[in-house]
Structures are given as structure tokens and as C-alpha cells.
Amino acid sequence: MTAYLITNVSVLGAAPTDLLIRDGVVAETGTGLAAPDAVVVNGTGLVALPGLVDLHTHLREPGREDAETVETGSRAAALGGYTAVCAMANTSPVADTAGVVEQVWRLGREAGLVDVQPIGAVTVGLAGERLAELGAMADSAARVRIFSDDGHCVADPRLMRRALEYVKAFDGIVAQHAEEPRLTEGAQMHEGEVATRLGLTGWPAVAEEAIIARDVLLAEHVGSRLHVCHVSTAGSVGVLRQAKARGVQVTAEVTPHHLLLTDEKAATYDPVYKVNPPLRTAADIAALRTALAEGIIDIVATDHAPHAVEDKECEWAYARPGMLGLETALSIALDVLGPQWDLIAERMSRAPARIAGLAEHGHDPAPGAPANLTLVDPAARRTVEPTELASRSRNTPYARMTLPGRIVATFLRGVATVLDGKAVK
Questions:
Q1: In what order do the strands lie in the sheet with 82-87?
Q2: Are strands 39-42 and 25-30 parallel, antiparallel or unpaired?
Q3: Angle at CA 394, nearest 5°, toward 391 and 396?
Q4: What is the CATH number of the domain that holds 206?
């Protein structure tokens, strides 16, 4: 295995030091290190972070390889500074059996760019009618610990309770797509002034907030772990704040786009801005940013949702919801939070690794730690060009935007997956 000597790099914004990576771990740190057999990486001006971990990625394989594959999504993740991603279950066939989750897991290992941890479906076919093979997926080679019907809410409270009770046996977690479907039928965007002006059916904030309120009560009742996907409203933040104050085992995520983009973007009728849950208001964004800083929202998760051209370049009403996120997430975090490196490491690496139970990830670069890390140039600025993205799809809402920060290198267990801003393989 190739050894790497990263010179004069700042670990989480601290004074410059050297990092020697050997045999998959950070072997040594300090100034003036020498290793004649190592490949030297000049870290001057760069910041070293623990490799990023995404708890919410759509890789589309199996079934929609025209939009993304495990390999192309893994490459996009590595270029975004990620060393692990959790792949959502809404594939075709749905990842609701041990066989499908093992297929996704093996494809990730073959790509070798990031650790791909499959998420299993809560219900068979995401239909919300009966539980999927939760135990079999947990016992499989993929060792699934997170279960979600993302894209669909587990709307039946009895079924949600059963799922929460079931996963306790193996310290699992249910990740809920919080959307009361009877309140969002026909909805096209956030319910508010912009929707009224545009003549589009509104998606009320309470549709999200009602499910979160119900589910934290269920999680509290059965003593189980709940994770709330893509929180988007100020009201949801309030529910989570109260639940955490009571000691409920609930964690939550926010996406980069819900931290930056408002429902005003829909005024263009450009389907690239159609997403589930929808873009909300400036007041919601302010509440989400505060909650993220305070830890009421635990992590940033991309909800990377690639779509083929025909699924996005069509009329708004027929376009599929979702945006790309892996290659731009750290830049958005820098734009929103500024260079608060410890906070960024907590929200984008340590906390998601803890929630997912990924023991090798989320470690700050230090002697003996697994060498899963990323190097960032905080002074660089990049203009997002969709044709230059590694993803097989092009539905980025940040096209031609200039964003702060550039991923210079990513290492997965001491193996360089990105060097000088380019994928190694």
C-alpha cells in the first residue's frame, strides 16, 4: 500500500503539521516528518477534515442506471470529500430483502471509492402495508442498521410503531420521510405566497410537522431510535427541540439546499428546483441554520437525487423531485456556516458516522486513527459546471454558481481516491 506524507496541513483549522499515512491509518503527526518511501502531498493552505459521511444518498442502482450507478455516485461522493455514503432503498427492485442490499453493498466494495452502506426499506416495496425483511437485512453481509421508505412516508402509525419496536433488537434506527400524504395530495411546492402567485398547489409545512410530532411520541413510547430525514420547516425545529429536551432518542438532518435556496426559485418554473420536501421560506432557512448550529438538527445530509434528463427537463408538474448534492455539499456548508471546521466535522462526519454505526469513519486525523480524511482548500472558489460533475445526471440547482472551497484530496483507509481535485480511478 502506498504511503503518503501530507506536509504543512492544518487539522481542523489548527497550526500546520505533517500527517504520515501508512497501512490504512494515520501513522504519525508532527512537524518536519520524513518518509522517503511516501508520496508527498503539499498541504500548505489546506485543511484536513475527517472524511465526510452522508446519511442520505440515492445511487439509483439497481434499476435506474441511466440516472446514476453505485460507481458514478461513489466517484461523485469521493470528489465531494466523502468516504462513506448510505444508499437509500428506493431502487428497482426496492432494497427490501437481504439479496438486494447485499448487491448494493458489493457494488460499493467493487467500486472502492467510498464505503457504501445500504439502507433497507421499512415496508415491502415501499408500499407502507407490511414490514420488509428487517431482521434478514440486519443479519446480511451488508449489516443494515438504518431503515427508511424515503420518498414515501410510513404513514400508518401502527406499522411505524412495529418498525420502531423491531429494530431495537439490533440497535437499528428508522429514518422517516416526514410527510402526511393526505395533506400533500397534488402539492407542487411550498404552501405560501409564492405558490399562490404562481397558481401551484401548496405543500403545507404542517404535513411534515405532524408526522414528526407523531413519530417522536411513538419513539418515546417504545424507547427506540428515530431519525428524521430532510427537515425543512421552522415548526419541525420546534417539535425536535421539545423532543430532545425530553430525552427522546431522535436525530435529524437538513440538506444543503434547504439551508440556502428558498421557494422563490420556483418562480422560474425550472424543474431543477422541484424537490421533496419543497424549498421553503427565508424564515424557515434561518430557523434551520440556527438549529444546525445548536445541534437540534444533528447533521447535514445531501439527499443526492440524480435524475435522467427526461425526468427533469419537462413541465414542472411532471418533473421528478430531487437535486444533486454530493459534489457541492461541503461548499454549501462553508457558505452557510463559514470556516467553523470543528462544527463542520461534527455535522458532516462524526455525527452521521455515529448515527449510522460506521465505526471506521468520523475520526479526526490523529495517530492511530483510520486514514479516512479529506483535504480542503478554503481559499479556492469554484464555479459549478454541470458537465464537469462526476454524477451521471446533471440536475444541480447550483449550475454556474460560484461557491467557496475545493476538495483537493480524499483518502479511504489510506488509499487516495482523489488527488489534486481529480478522481484517482
A1: 52-57, 82-87, 115-118
A2: unpaired
A3: 100
A4: 3.20.20.140
Q: Which grid coordinates are listed for 153? A: 412516508
For residues 122 and 131, is the Cβ–Cβ distance under 8 A? Answer: yes
DSSP E strands: which ranges in 37-142? 39-42, 47-50, 52-57, 82-87, 115-118
Name residue, grid cell 503518503.
4
Q: What is the pTM of this model?
A: 0.98
Query: Is the same domain home to 68 and 94?
Result: yes
Q: How confident is the model at residue 277 (pLDDT cuts 50, 70, 90)?
A: very high
| CA–CA–CA angle 394, 399, 405 (5° rounding) | 110
In a domain, 361, yes or no: no
Catalytic residue status for 139: no
Q: Which of 149, 303, 311, 377 is catalytic?
A: 303
Please give the residue range of the domain that contains residue 136.
Answer: 51-356
Cα 86-87-90 angle, rounded to 5 deg: 145
pLDDT of residue 185: 96
